[in-house]
TrEMBL record:
One of its GO terms (cellular component) is membrane. This is Ig-like domain-containing protein. Its main location: membrane. Keywords: Disulfide bond, Immunoglobulin domain, Membrane, Repeat, Signal, Transmembrane, Transmembrane helix. It comes from Knipowitschia caucasica.
Amino acid sequence: MARNWPIMNLKSCLISLLFGISLLGGVYSRIVSVPVGPLIRVEGQPISIRCDVTDYGGPDEQDFEWVMTRAQTDSQIKIISTFDNSYSHASLTRRVASGEISMNRLKDNEVELKISDVKQIDSGFYTCQTPSTDSEIRGNYEARVQLIVIPNTLKVSPTAPSPLVSESGDIVLSCNVTRELTQPTYLSVTWSIRKSKTLETEEILSFGPQGEVTTGPKYTRRYSDGSVRLVPGRNGVFELVIAKVTTSDDGTYGCTGTEWAHESSGQWLQIVESTKEMGPVAVTPIISDNSDQ
Ligand SMILES: *[C@@H]1O[C@H](CO)[C@@H](O)[C@H](O)[C@H]1NC(C)=O
């Protein structure tokens, strides 16, 4: 054991020496990060792309610039800068001036690029750059992420349920949710009811985007005892059956289709949704003979 001591001392000496140098001389290696792409978004929807910088020298508050290149061309188009008001390329000045394209500072070392209404021509590679404030150039001064803007092809077409159902009967809620598959996106469908009595909208059940079922709080028991059940869909048709109905099921039903992207970070992101009214259902009470006995 004793023999190892000098070696360990030498090692820890070296470590403290290196650590000392890094404190004194500012041994940093700048890292600029953006999300791992590609980011898939639907035309007409908002988008936010974050960028941060760490391990830099100089002032805490850092400057940022965004540039983009369209897939077909190599030329860089300047978008927006934290310090240069006349930075934007002529083709973007109007969108920047109107605030449709903006940059928010979230922290000294983090910003987000926002486009409130993304267009298909915005598809391309987005590069976040940070001008050097380091005493020596070391590390990465930019990072790039691909944005793919797809057209909105989400279609939600419900079939109107029978408008009159007698108590203890079934309500069948059929909803066709489709999209054109050009990029790996996922679908979910959610049924809801606006109750006639309370006029409140309650979620009944959601299916997807990974095939999982989640029930609204007031429907959990009925789903587990099988009186609310999902019928496996064909060709985009999702069917929900509510059995043994009571007058409290009286209301206007709706279905919502949602298209999702599965980000490289593992996060599921709603990229577009559409809600359609299915129609009103009136539940007619059964006049029970038993009550007279
Ligand atoms: C569902 O909607 C899609 C797109 O509108 C359509 O092509 C398909 O035929 C529909 N399916 C059914 C079963 O109605």
